[in-house]
Amino acid sequence: TNGKASAAAVAEMRELKPDIIAELKRREDEFLAAAQAKAAAVKVAHEEKLRAIKTGEKNIELSWHDGEYLSGWEAIGEAGELLEGLGLARYVDGWGYHVKADVEEALGETFTYAAAVKLAQPKLDAEAAKKAAAETERQAKFAEARETGKPVFLEKWSEPCSDPREECSLDIVAQYAMPDGSTKTVRQHTW
User: Who contacts 136 (Cβ-Cβ below 8 Å, separation ≥6)?
Assistant: First the structure.
């Protein structure tokens, strides 16, 4: 033949089209259900590992990672995630969770989550106090703006230039507390 379907074949395909579409939809639903079940199982397993570490059923174990550009103590998986949350480790892309050297010196290669929390607590408390003081200072500036009816300077930083038509590469950005409780951002180009 010339490569075209016969009228009978086309009619048969049109007749079967709803069944074919229904079968494809069923397979897609089945695939999505399996993927969701797998994702849920992974999440449950992850949460269980976190719980086991937090309750002390499982210890945190550090291992020495000798890399080409970075060497140091490493915590794997959920242990690293928890240590990062305490500020005792940081995630390095392509390397893993790099644990601060003083953590291993203070706690050893194997320790409990409770011991890690105890080690991190003074720093966490200091950071929380610093954050609370900064928020109190910020609120005081908003109160001053309301009382005076004038903008009050909050902070200043630099960013890449926001206007491609300008011949600058850096903008100085300032933020002000406004009397109505909003903030105003002012950009100044550096030529």
Answer: none
* Residue 77 zone, left/alpha/beta (φ > 0; ψ -120 to 50; rest): left
pLDDT at 1 over 70: no
Contact 104, 62 (CB under 8 A): yes
| Lookup result for tokens 């910020």 | 138
Nearest to 150 by CA among 176, 188, 187: 176
Alpha helices in the chain (DSSP H): 7-55, 77-85, 101-107, 113-148
β-strand pairing of 110-111 with 60-66: antiparallel
pLDDT tens digits for range 108-142? 999 999 999 999 999 999 999 999 999 999 999 99
Q: Is the pTM of this model over 0.70?
A: no
Residue of 60, 64, 94 lying closest to 77 (CA atoms): 60
Q: Are the C-beta atoms of 119 and 107 separated by less than 8 Å?
A: yes
As a whole number of angstroms, the distance between CA 74 and CA 88 comes to 11
Q: Residue 124 corresponds to which amino acid? A: L
